[in-house]
Design a protein that fits this description.
81% of the residues lie in helices and 0% in strands. By secondary structure, the protein is mainly α. It has a domain of 80 residues. Helix 2 runs antiparallel to helix 3. It starts with a helix and ends in an 18-residue tail after the last helix. The C terminus is likely disordered.
Length: 152
């Protein structure tokens, strides 16, 4: 058994040396490639094709952002409608002999407040979608005026 260990150790050492040499070669190759890429970037800058692709991606991102804001606005409106429905249920329960009327009136007010908050958030999200659609164009983005529902 003692005889196998030195042989195993020698084989392992030989394999380790081979791996180290292979890693050195690969490291040199990567350094050369890195220097080559750095020279290419310094010489040419952005090509017209790169600029065109970047512009396309920016337009796609702008459209995606506008769509996301519109989806958010629709979600806020659905949430507002759900809160309105819950408020109406609590008002009906408060008017009936079921449960604590004061608690139902309180919860109805809370749902109405949350509904109003959601409607305001929907307006803001719609405004953001409109800004996203106009960003980078010549038209000015819509401005939410004083006293409008979009103010926070």
């Amino acid at each position: 058994m003692d005889e196998e260990r030195p042989a195993d150790r020698d084989q392992e050492l030989q394999l380790t040396r081979l791996r180290i040499e292979e890693l050195r070669r690969r490291s040199l190759e990567l350094d050369e490639r890195n220097q080559e890429l750095a020279r290419q970037q310094q010489v040419g800058g952005s090509s017209p094709e790169h600029v065109r692709r970047a512009a396309e991606r920016a337009e796609q991102a702008k459209a995606s952002a506008a769509a996301a804001h519109q989806r958010a606005a629709m979600a806020y409106l659905r949430s507002a409608a759900a809160h309105e429905s819950a408020a109406e249920c609590h008002e009906r329960l408060a008017a009936s002999p079921f449960g604590n009327a004061e608690e139902h009136w309180r919860r109805a007010r809370e749902h109405r407040d949350m509904s109003a908050d959601d409607r305001n958030a929907a307006v803001l999200s719609d405004s953001a979608a409109a800004r996203d659609e106009h960003a980078g164009g010549s038209a000015a983005p819509p401005v939410v005026g004083a006293g409008s529902a979009g103010e926070v």
